[in-house]
Specification:
Number of helices: 20
Structural class: mainly alpha
Shape: globular
Strand content: under 5%
Oligomer: single chain
Radius of gyration: 21 Å
Distance between the termini: 42 Å
Number of strands: 0
Order of helices and strands: HHHHHHHHHHHHHHHHHHHH
Amino acid sequence: MTTRTIFMMAVSLRCRQIYIFILGWIAYASTYILRKPLGVIKAELEIALPVSRTELGWLDSALLFPYAFVQMFFGHVGDRFGARVTFGICLILSALSMVSFGYWDDLYMLMILLFLTGAAQAHCWPNCTKALLSWFPDKVRNSVFGMFGTCAFSGGILGTIIAVYLQTHYGWRHVYLFPSLFVAAIGVVVLFTFSQPSEVGIQVPGKEQNTVSNEKTAQQSLSILQLWKIPMIAEVAVAMFCLKVVRYTMYMWLPMYLLKHLGYTKGMAGVFSTAFEVGGVVGSGLVGFVLDRYFPNRTLVGTAISIALSTLALCVFVVTSSWGLAVNSICMFLAGAFNAGPDTLLGGSIPIELGEKDNRNSGSATVGLVNGFGSIGTCIEGPVIGLISTYYGWTGMFYVMIGLSALATVTVFKASVIYKKVDQTIIVEPI
């Protein structure tokens, strides 16, 4: 093989890596323009339908319950049918389910539509991350994934801004129409071009190769109990439970809190609520590099410290919430930054590495289990937070988030102890 041939192959690989990264980033970010509008339009739904605050919480559960259930119990679908096909089809299905949302006035019909899109989007994250990480060497897994994780928080920001714009200029009934058409188009592109190296005959240098055939994998799909026995999976899942409740409470309730409790205008409440996500973009983007530099071989310790700092930021926000926009923004930015980094790694690169170890080809299933378990918290977040804010005030909502964030800190510290016990090597127990 000539030097020119090797050079051209390297250039081709790098171009494909860049394309897959950008397409995956845009595609997964687009899922949030179908999630975030619900938090923005809740105040109008309460009047237009009309419904109680608790019933608004059930809309959250209608979206998030199938998201958790499908990930936990059907995470192997992507391992069996391929990440590209699964991801593309599910994007299209989620778009089709939400395109008519604004044309209905019945609460139960809205719940059905949210249920369908939640079930479809359940396969998006596991299969997007599985395909993405198959293109990069194992030694840069955390850094790449930290940068890629910005898509979730950037998508949240964009989803809120788009929803606020459409709500302000066209009314709440149009906040899902145009985003649904965009997501459908992206889904078609993913379906035909979001390939893995094995599909195009490319071998990635520095990447541990999976030699198990699809047929054999289909016959040996791991059960939930077998996946749960992998060291650190239980601790990571519990931490994800806590972090997702905090994150989705901010997504779904912060605009309403700012509007009704702090007296922000409708537009300001929607825009300011993105401070948490702006911090999330920064935190997710930097976490991989910071941990690699300052916490070598102690990733979980650094992750626990980050969650602890997020907890502290929430405490400061409760104390200073009446101090004005600037202080509110800083606290929410810091809370989001220190929450997002751990969320990205604990929900992606770590479980993928565990699931793909020893030719198991269970990366989608393992990510699905961890994120699905975490999403159980988001399922109950809606009605629980609705009840807490009704009977204990908005401050009670923040006390719950502070407690859950502290629990996540303790759980991740426990996972770091387990990590030391296995000689700082990720080990998967034999089946």
